[in-house]
Amino acid sequence: MPTNGLSSRMIQFLDPEDRNRVGIQTPFQRLALQMQDILGDGGILKDVLREGEGPLVPRDASISIHFSGFLEYSDQPFESTRSYKFPKMMKLGKDMTVWGLDLGLRTMRRGEFARFLIQPSYAYGEMGCPPLIPPLASVLYEVQVFDYLDSAQVDEFFALSPEEQNLAPLSTLLNVVNTERSFGNRCFNQSRYDDAKYRYKQAMTLLRNRKPEDEEERRHVEEASLPFLLNLSLAYFRLERPHKALKFGQRALQISPGNTKALFRCGQACLEMNEYEKAQEYLIMAQAKKPFDTDINNSLKKLANCYKEHLDQEKLMCSKMFSAFKSEN
């Protein structure tokens, strides 16, 4: 890069006008030459590093991303999600602090990796954000989109009153609770069991508040409730709250008697509470449905070991009590 005898260290302290006067291109200026102007005013430039698939991110989506933001002449990001164990889920139009990044994300697809060069008017403006962001700073974001969920319908539905929600078509309600389930499953897979439980319970509240018009609609609502009850049972089990896990497992059995997952959840919960006879009853019924299921059979083995230890402890206690009684006599 031509620097007219100036060191790169000195260049960063020159005003943009001074740089132009001496014919010096900054790193961001060089980068801009290979980027696409997505708005037509030069405010947000984009460079696709890896193409994505499918439709563009919807404007009201909740999006799973990793991103890092950089200032010019800095190798270290001023903000980044890369230290997180899992990609961050963020709501467009709400969670993004940089407007230009919010707009840029709407041009991306699932799996895409891109970078955006964002001018001050679409970033932190004339004032910047002291002490990290200086005034009139352009910023560079590297962004990877993993997945997204179109949550516009969910947002609109929750904005309705309970009466209006009840008047909405059943298909709308089912779409909303299925989206909530997707959010919950994502949280669960990231071991965020409290957040998963919250999503599942929100969906259950919507289903419980529904006033069915007829028997067929009542049946549809009941069927839609089953996976949430099973998921809640498992979430509470992972949260080490077996009493709650048993409660939701039993509610699932009321809807679907003989449901293998529900029987297994109840058996796991009873085993955790040291209720061995109940655990055996549930697990044997589950095994009868799926004789070769590894998880069920492993739980039965664990039950046998736990029960043996329990009996051995009782025998030892009785032996000590009997010995103490003999010594007193």
Q: Describe it for me?
A:
- It comes from Bagarius yarrelli.
- Keywords: Isomerase, Repeat, Rotamase, TPR repeat.
- Belongs to the FKBP6 family.
- The structure is a single chain.
- This protein has 329 residues and is α+β, with helices and mostly antiparallel strands.
- The protein folds into two domains: 34-150, Chitinase A, domain 3 (Roll); 153-306, Serine Threonine Protein Phosphatase 5, Tetratricopeptide repeat (Alpha Horseshoe).
- It has 13 helices and nine strands.
- The protein has helices spanning 8-11, 16-21, 27-32, 99-105, 152-158, 162-167, 170-189, 193-209, 215-238, 242-255, 260-272, 276-289, 294-328; strands at 36-37, 44-50, 53-56, 61-71, 79-80, 88-91, 109-110, 113-118, 139-150.
- Strands 1, 2, 4, 5, 6, 8 and 9 form a seven-stranded antiparallel sheet that branches. A two-stranded antiparallel sheet has the order 3-7.
- β1 and β2 (44-50) form a beta hairpin.
- It is elongated.
- Residues 1-10 have low confidence and may be disordered.
